[in-house]
Amino acid sequence: MTIEPVAVYSTLLHEKFGLPRQAGLAGSLEGLVSLRGNWACADSLRGLEEFSHIWLIWGFHLNRPSGNRTVRPPRLGGNRRTGVFASRSPFRPNGLGMSAVEIVSIDFEKAEIKVKGADLADGSPIFDIKPYIPYSDSIPAASPGYTALEWKKLRVVFPEGIDRVFAPERLEALGQILSLDPRPHYQDDPQREYGLLFADRNIRFKVRDGVLEVLSFEERS
Amino acid sequence: MTIEPVAVYSTLLHEKFGLPRQAGLAGSLEGLVSLRGNWACADSLRGLEEFSHIWLIWGFHLNRPSGNRTVRPPRLGGNRRTGVFASRSPFRPNGLGMSAVEIVSIDFEKAEIKVKGADLADGSPIFDIKPYIPYSDSIPAASPGYTALEWKKLRVVFPEGIDRVFAPERLEALGQILSLDPRPHYQDDPQREYGLLFADRNIRFKVRDGVLEVLSFEERS
Questions:
Q1: What pLDDT, on the 0 to 100 scale, is given for residue A76?
Q2: Facing residue for B3 by CB, picked from A35, A55, A94
Q3: What is the mean pLDDT of residues B165-192?
Q4: Nearest residue to A199 via CA among A86, A123, A122
Q5: Per-residue pLDDT tens for A144-160?
Q6: What pLDDT, in 10s, does the model give residues A60-81?
Q7: Do A127 and B41 touch (CB under 8 A)?
Q8: Which of A7, A145, B49, B76 is most buried (most C-beta within 10 Å)?
Q9: Beta bridge partner(s), residue B206
């Protein structure tokens, strides 16, 4: 079956490195769903203002669809293999992602939905948008499997002056993203410097003893 | 983008008529997810036994993908138009459905997952299977929009002898399906007879004053 994007996603994160590993983890991170082609009109969205959340069905465009039957979830330390259908890994058959995100506002004229809490990278193609329906989508008592394991969050320390560059809500989103520990699961080298691209700035940081220290935030050259 | 089925769905409902309009509405209705091709092995499902629910991303194969920007949700009496992205209508851009279903059992050897509560018809192609993760998927406080409107359930009256044909759990599922009122929203003719195909039997019924009476349940000829 052939599917075509109905919208495209824009946000401050352009690379895989630093992307929240699930929707809802960086609740303050905003992004924009812009309808495309035939769908780019107010009619397609009529009535969506009644809902607070939507589902995005989208493509992991930074990963190629994978033929691997097993993956190694970061939540399991990257050591244990599970079936691809027992994981939300981006390395999967048809490269389809699925995320519940909060609606911030809808611009019917521009056919745009501002959302927050998404785990999509900038430029991701969106193949469908559906309203979140609590009576069929929300199952609080569902067994979380290995996702019940605690994800130890980092304490984030920003350098002085960063609040002159980022507005408070952007800084909050950046703090959330960094607190999720973007490092590869197998690395724990306190000397190592990492760089994360956020809002066209190169955020350099180190991690030691559960504390992530931001070293610099220069403009992307 | 081209996507290929990873599995196929089998169940007792073969036609659109009578399909629950959302996952979870007919909680006793069972079905089977059978992995296909490269994915048909125990490895693909390894670890899924830790979870209680899965998402199916699947194709509305009984409807063709639609270019219409608006639809008329049955929940709104079929009179009010809403945007396709403000509805879960099967008439949608890429013909993709999304359903959270309960795992009944997993046969790793056969690469099959028995589930219940699905709203897929027999033969539906499945493009992805993901574990349900409550911390990111379950949003009980999400605003339900127009889906908060009460769906008036019918009282179902079965004829004598039907329990000799259907096992108790199948009869329960049939009762749930019928109680959801499968009639088109614009019809309320107490004289009219309807036929619903369930488990290869033609279930004939009438509806009057909120009571659905099953008239016969003959084998499909």
A1: 83
A2: A94
A3: 92
A4: A122
A5: 998 888 778 999 999 99
A6: 999 988 899 999 988 887 789 9
A7: no
A8: A7
A9: B213
